[in-house]
Amino acid sequence: MPEALSGLxxxxxxxxxxxxxxxxxxxxxxxxxxLLAGLLYQLLPKKYGxxxxxxxxxxxGGRVVWGLARTVMTLLDGTAFTFKEFLAAGFVQAIxxxxxxxxxxxxxxxxxxxxxxxxxx
Length: 121
Known about the structure:
The chain is an all-alpha fold. It is built from five helices and no strands.
């Protein structure tokens, strides 16, 4: 957002679609991530290993939605966004977060099931 605001007092950054910023892209990604995580969790068997598949599908789907939103934003703004940039920003740079999700979320789900906080359908 500061980049967009600088356009108000200088010629450094034009106030255009970029003013929406990365937050809008992340909002799209998180919306898809949450929607897919819940949907896949409901549709797939409730066995422990399937949690990983639900999680992987949600992460992949969220990243694809982020890439599509970024593509639309850059097309409207007149900038470029290549497939190589999508892979780098969407997956390679996200490896630490992906590893944390895989390491933390399934054990949390398992613990919540074991404590009968969530149903073990």
